[in-house]
Every structure is written in C-alpha cells, then in structure tokens.
Write the structure tokens for this entry.
Amino acid sequence: MTSATETRKFTAEVDQVLHLVTHSLYSHKEIFLRELISNAADACDKLRFEAIGKPELLAGDGELRIDVSVDRQARTISVRDNGIGMTADEVVANIGTIASSGTRKFLEALSAEQKADANLIGQFGVGFYSAFVVADQVTLVTRRAGADESAGVRWESAGSGEYTLASAAVPSRGTTVTLHLKPEEDEFLEEWQLRSLIARYSDHIGFPIRMPKLKDGKPTGEWETVNQASALWTRPKNELKDEEYRGFYKHLSHDFGDPLAWTHNRVEGTQNFTSLLYLPARVPFDLLLGGRDERKGLKLYVKRVFIMDASEQLLPAYLRFVRGVVDSDDLPLNVSRELLQQNRTIDKLRAACTRRVLDLLDKLAKDEPEKYATFWNAFGSVFKEGLAEDAANRERIAKLLRFASTKSDGPAQTVALDDYLGRMLPNQDAIYYLTADGYAAAKGSPQLEALRALGVEVLLLYDRIDEWMAGYLTEYAGKKLRNVAKGDLDLDRLAGGDAAKRKETEKSAEGVVRKLKELLGERVRDVRVSARLTDSPACLVLGEHDLGLAMQRLLRQAGHEVPASKPILEIHPAHPLIAKLDQETDTVRATDLALLLLDQAQLLDGGVLEDPAAYVRRVNALLV
C-alpha cells in the first residue's frame, strides 16, 4: 500500500543539470549505465562499511550484488542493488536537490560555448541524471537497510522540472532504478548491448553485476554474473590489461578520457598494502573549483572494504591531482578520519604513496617526455607547491620542475634545471631567473639585455606561484639561484669585463644620476648606472631581499598589506633619452622626462601606473 503521492519541484540547480545533460550528452548516451552501476556499487560499499558495527543490517542477505534487467515489452531497463538504500529524506537530499556548492560552481563555469560533456557528469554527484539522456521517465524505489518493509520510498520523474514522492511497501533493502526508454533508444533493449557496456565500463566493479541467464533468447529464471566481480587492484598485474586499468580510472574519476599514466604496487613486509595511483591527462573539473582544501583524489580501503575518501591523509596537497585507491591490511576497519590524523601507519602509507608518484613522474620525464610535458602543462603550477610542503623530497621535486627560458621557443618549450646546468658558461656560478606577470613580459624585460648579449640563459618564471616558489628554491646541485631583477648584477666575471672602464662610465654619468635623484625624489630608493641594460634607457631593480614587484601586486589584490619598499632606478647612460635628459635645461621638461623614464620602467615590469592620464600628457607634450 502506498500513501498519497506528493509532487515537488526540482531546485533550480537540478533543473539546469537536467537540461544540460539531456541536451548535451547525445554523443555519449551509454554513460547512463556506467553512472547507475557506479551509484549502486557505492551503495553496496556503504552498507558493507556500516555493517562492520551493525552486522544485523545485512539481515541474512550478505551477498551484495547489482542486478541489471530488461523488459522489452514495457521498454524498461532496471538497475537494482541490495546496498544501503535511502530514507525519504535522503532521496530528497540526494536527488531532489543538489547540496554541493561545487555543483553550483560547475553550472556557473559552463559558458554558452562550453557544452556539458561526459567527463563532467558524475564529478559532482550528478551522475544519476544521466538516466534522462535515454529515458523519458525514471522511477526509483528504495528502502534503507534496517528499516521496516513499510518504510520504502517511491520517487518518479519525467525530468521536466518536478518529481513525485510517495511511501511504498518494499520487501527488501536497497534501491531499484527503472528507466522507461525514449522511443528512439531501442538499442538499449538489446541484452548483448548492455552486456557489452558492462564489460567496457564496469567490469572492474568489486561486486557481482548480474543479468538474467538466457537460453534460445529467453530468460531461464536464473541469474549469471557478467563482470569480473573482484576489486581490480587486488588482481595480479600480469593478469590485467591496459583497457581494464583505463576502465577503472574512468569509474574512479568520472573522466571520459584515458589517464596519462598509472602505477600499481603491492607491498608486503612490516606493512601490507596495495596502491593503484593514476595521473590524469587533464585537469579534473573539481580540482579547478575546490583548490587545496577540497581533495577527493584517493579512496581508502581496509581489507577490500571502502572506508572513506581520504587523500588529505594519504597524499600531500601538492599531489592532490592524483586519483586512485589505497587498500591497507594493517588499519582497523572502524578507523575514523580523526584517528587517521594520529596513526603512524598512515604516515608510512603517505610517504610510500608520495614516493610512488614521484617515481612515476621520474619515469615519464626520462622515458616519455611528451607525456611529461602534458602532465606539466596541466599540473605544473600545483606540483611546484611541493618545494615548500615536502622538504624531504625537495631535491627530487626540483629535478622535475620545468621552466621556459631565453633559449626556448615560446612558453610551451620548457627546460629542466639539469638542462640549464649543462648549458652554463664556463665562468658562470649561478642559475639566473626572472619573475614576471606573463611570458611576454618576462621575455621582453630590459633586465635580460646584458645577459642575453653575453649568451647567458635565463629562466623565465611567470606563474602566479613562481615568486613564492623561488623563496624555497634557492640552490640546485650546488648552484645558487639568482633573480636578475634584484641586487647588484656583477657581470665582469662572465663577460671578462674591464672594471676600470665600468668605473669610468659610472663617473661620467654622475651628473645625470644626481639630476634624476633630485627630479624623482622620494619616488625611488636610488638611481644608479646599470650593468643589465644594453638597449633600453632604464629599468627597475629591487634590493636583494625585497619582495618582488609581481608578488607585491598579487598580495595587494588579495587584500594583504605589503611592506613598503621603493625600487631602484637603473639607467643606461649611452641611451639617447638619458643624454637628452642630461642636456635638458628646462626644469619642467626635465621633470617630465624623468617621470616618463620611471613610468616606462614600471610598465615594463608589469606595474600599473598610479596616474595614467599624467603619463599620456607627458608623452604627448614631448611628441609635440
């Protein structure tokens, strides 16, 4: 017997998801079966975990399974599990609304040009709605484990903005999802088609997926298992094909594409555990939105029982893009997130998983540089955080870093620090780098002129994180790293320069230096002759320990107070503008020229002028 049926509206977010899914996934219709089976497997995992403390929840039906069946006459597909099931409140929370703030971000991120695609569905718990790609009506019947038979729930919707909810008598625990197929979706009524899809997408599921056994095309009344029905990571590596590894990755990550690489290891000895870790080929959508604090990369199992998503304990934050599973034999089955934080076994697991990922990256960098370049373009800015976060592996991390340089053709062509060392000049005792707001700003910086003329390679660091990172990367292979925009740049050793001639140049420029100091006053810390410039009239330089200008701008944009530090203006005395300023007798015109030099230097360093109108006025005055 059922109670009166109640009709409710979907939340606005669900309505949007339904619209995107039903209108954008026409080229990946078969994804619905993968998602429904994944949800069913999650329900079985949750019941197995809860039954550790409450074995009565299994109630004589301890063989967890997923059944898929077809009714050709009614034109329906049913996916049933005997997992944890749901209460009425849980149905409303999980299906009628989307509570995840990530889903709202997901919807906001989809521009008019960017269609929802298969790799996004499922990443925010919206996989259930993929059923409406092939169905014009979906019915869900469920009963929570441990609840009375009369406490079942029936949910139904045509995906058009509302759903119905009613109480129902459900004989056994678990959930059944029934899809009433659209007229044009007859292909999914074919048993062989469903078996093929299960083999392709869900063969690795650790629970039996069963379908009715057929004889002469007719059901015999018996069920047969159509998948491997064992946790993939527990099987020997030599029995697994690459296709199976890729299929398991798609199940874990809800990514429709293949992983870039993976590592599968079983450790036995003082500690027994299995790890299967994947590098994605592109940035997961939830990584972009969630940041450091929202990590869902690794799943923790204990003796094949799913415990939790626990990547914050199993991997450091700079490896939060890694996906996979860790299955330990040494942790207690009732371990909690709080206990994990104090467990020495977890510390060892974390160190071992970190080592495995770095080993995998080392191998890629050495043997498959094109794949490593793909990894770096996707995750390099996240990986750099490891220099600060993981002091024990800092040398290994530094070896894996990649940078554009003055020797590379564009930002896509990067060099390793070892490559740089191999190209250093005989007298060169430092690794030179420059930070900027973008590649073009770094490549065109006047601070590179003298070094470029001498043939010295300079690393170009233009990621937002780079200047912060450089504070931790002060030395590599015994060579100091040197920011070319800070402190004195003594190039005499590199150039075999004449110190006496340089002193003579500085002495002859004393007049114009003194004049600039007077005209600019408190705007700069100092004015001096530059060893950096060969073509440009002037550039800005900071003290050796000053915060970089790019970092200062980032901190101000984030609302932080930045310690006041005035730049040093360095000039190239032989430049015509400097000569013109030296000869200028009109105080107003001389002041305009001095301020123009300072403004140009600020612009070249990526700065924003305090008074752009005044800059334009000065330029116009000098032009006319």
About this structure: The longest strand covers residues 135-143. The domain at 6-230 is CATH 3.30.565.10 (Heat Shock Protein 90). The first helix runs from residue 12 to 24. Confidence is low (pLDDT under 50) at residues 98-103, 110-125.
